[in-house]
Structure formats: structure tokens, C-alpha cells
Amino acid sequence: PRQSFVMVKGAARLLPAEEPPPAEPPPAEPPRQAPGQQEQHLQLMMQLLRPQDAIRLAVRLESARPRRVRYLLVVRPEEAGAEAETALLGVDFAHEGAACCTLGMVLPLWSDTQVFLDGDG
């Protein structure tokens, strides 16, 4: 399934599904550049998820290690009524151009969960 995101200053938000536009021949245009680093990171992070899961929000975090890239994801299944299965995921990339990522934290969000993030950012 195709997922659309809006990205602003290190954060990405899933956009609601919309009807696909009618098929039209693509206009002649020069070859596109490779997707940006943040888009590549989103694609790699989506590969960590189950097929029924979707990233609702992705935020790039500051890391204590200078080269490491970290994200905090809010993930939930796409089916209706699945809000009870929401989870926070911590994802790490060894460096900016890494071709793979690792899952460093999984925190299920229950109805009585309180999450406090500490820091200056």
C-alpha cells in the first residue's frame, strides 16, 4: 500500500488516504533526483513494520552520538478501531547514509500510558 507523508524540519506525518487521481500520461520531464535522505529513511523504517501497520508520525531526534540518526515513530495498524494497538518505536541508523536501520525500543501505548520526553528540543 502507498503511504503519503508531509515532512517538516525532521518530522513526518502520515496523510489520510485519498482517491488516486485518474490515470494520465506523465508529462515529459528530466530524470528525477534520488529521493531525499529523510524519504529513504522513511522507506527503510516502513520495512521494519508488519504489513498491516502504518507510521502515523515520525520525528527525528537528537542523538548523543554525533553520527547516529534516531527517530521516534508512532505506529498503528491501518484497520478501523485499532487505536488500542498504538506503539512508540525507537529506530536507529548508524549514520546518515546507512542502508539499514535497527529497532531499539518498542513501547505499547495503553489507555493509561503517560509518556514524558526530557530534553531541550
TrEMBL record:
Transmembrane segments: none annotated. GO terms for molecular function: actin binding; phosphatase activity. Residues 1-40 are annotated as: Disordered. It comes from the Eukaryota. One of its GO terms (biological process) is negative regulation of actin filament polymerization. Residues 41-121 form the Slingshot N-terminal domain. PANTHER family: PROTEIN PHOSPHATASE SLINGSHOT HOMOLOG 3 (PTHR45864:SF4), SLINGSHOT PROTEIN PHOSPHATASE HOMOLOG (PTHR45864). This is SSH phosphatase. The lineage of its organism: Eukaryota, Metazoa, Chordata, Craniata, Vertebrata.
